[in-house]
Amino acid sequence: MSIPASEFKRRRKQLMRMMDKDSIAIIPTAQTYIRNRDVEHPFRPDSDFHYLTGFSEPDAVAVLIPNRKSAEYILFCREKDPERELWDGLRAGLEGATEIYEADDAFPIDSLDEILPRMLEQCERVYYAMGCNHELDHRMSEWIGQLRARTRTGVHGPLEFIALDHYLHDMRLYKSRSEQKVMRAAAKTSAKAHIALMKQCEPGMHEYQLQAEFAYQCAQKGATSQAYPSIVGGGNNACILHYTDNSEPLTDGDLVLIDAGCENACYASDITRTFPVNGTFSEPQRQLYQLVLDAQKAALEQIKPGNHWNDPHDAAVKTITHGLHELGLLKGKPDALLKESAYTKFYMHKTGHWLGMDVHDVGDYKIDGQWRMLESGMVLTVEPGIYIPVGSKGVAKKWQGIGIRIEDDVLVTKQGYDILSKDAPKEIDEIEALMAS
Ligand code: GLY
Ligand code: MN
Ligand code: MN
């Protein structure tokens, strides 16, 4: 399942409609990075570039010039090269760029220095995301410098640079039907993998075994990349928010927190489940888990068009503050505790983020200083948590070494919300029953 070619075309047209006249947009794909010596890190195309082209090869730059008669969409990419293709895999080549990827014209990437300055010369405005690709930033300033040097010959280069990300990232925030389908499929695959982990987990296994099992389960369903490095934290490790060592054994009596999600057609899923290593919650674990679950449900109830971005977070911290107070973990008056954000001792992150091609997806959270309104078609995560590391001052021993997060992927609908990751169980009874089966 992937995004149809017609949609990439529609996106390019939409962006070109927003651009001023006599303008050009330049969008490079991601750079390749060396891991060590002649081994590269796995290549993943830049999300903005892929959003507009669907093209997955490295060494490519897309150029859009609205209303240009000869060609509006030009793709610079690698030429076909049978010898290199024998080593590194097939390339679309210039023919593939026009025939498969529907570019109006295509040029070898090696000709960028020769051809792009001539295109720039014709334009008044350049839409470009400065600071994202240092190599291209550098070449861009060289090209502009060369044009300046030729002013006495009547050449004048662009007058204005405009932040392309501002336009593109707003488009990316609203997910089309096919994007929703692709994201739902990613979340379903990840949810199934989380279920498999619940079934297989037992004391003595290592965190990395669950990480490997997650990747295996996703790959079995065709999702061969992860949207981000999996977090598998047993016991106290769950209190390290970005724990990715995943190197320790899982202990009987501990919880394990798994934050893992696959990528499908360059779209992310991002799911966290926390469950007991031995299949049964202890009483303190049960109390804290139920509190996080209640906070998540309170946050979800705030998701509907017209509510603002921070409403789910406000609802979650209210529930967590009251709950921690009832359990004796926060002392004082609940209203005062809320006012002074006392919960941040145990809940130190926000309740979610936009989700899309990037796990922490693009899109502004505030507009003119105000939290943005939720609108149908947006996708966000809802992920409250409570973290009580070993050694926490003034906290009874029974609570220490417990880290819990529950995270779902949520589509804002006309009526409210739809949980894309709903297949992954999160009720205590459901989890215990599944782990006992
Ligand atoms: N997996 C990263 C996050 O939940 O934000
Ligand atoms: Mn997340
Ligand atoms: Mn996550």
Automatic annotation (TrEMBL):
EC number: 3.4.11.9
Entry GO CC: cytosol
GO molecular function: manganese ion binding; metalloaminopeptidase activity
GO biological process: proteolysis
Aminopeptidase P N-terminal domain residues: 3-137
Cited SMART domains: AMP_N
Enzyme class: hydrolase
Reaction equations catalysed: Release of any N-terminal amino acid, including proline, that is linked to proline, even from a dipeptide or tripeptide
This protein's record includes keyword Hydrolase: yes
The protein's required cofactors: Mn(2+)
Stored InterPro entries: Aminopep_P_N (IPR007865), Creatin/AminoP/Spt16_N (IPR029149), Creatinase/aminopeptidase-like (IPR036005), Pept_M24 (IPR000994), X-Pro_dipept-like (IPR052433)
Keywords tagged on the record: Aminopeptidase, Hydrolase, Manganese, Metal-binding, Metalloprotease, Protease
PANTHER family linked: XAA-PRO AMINOPEPTIDASE 3
Family statement: Belongs to the peptidase M24B family.
Protein name: Xaa-Pro aminopeptidase
Biological source species: Solemya velum gill symbiont
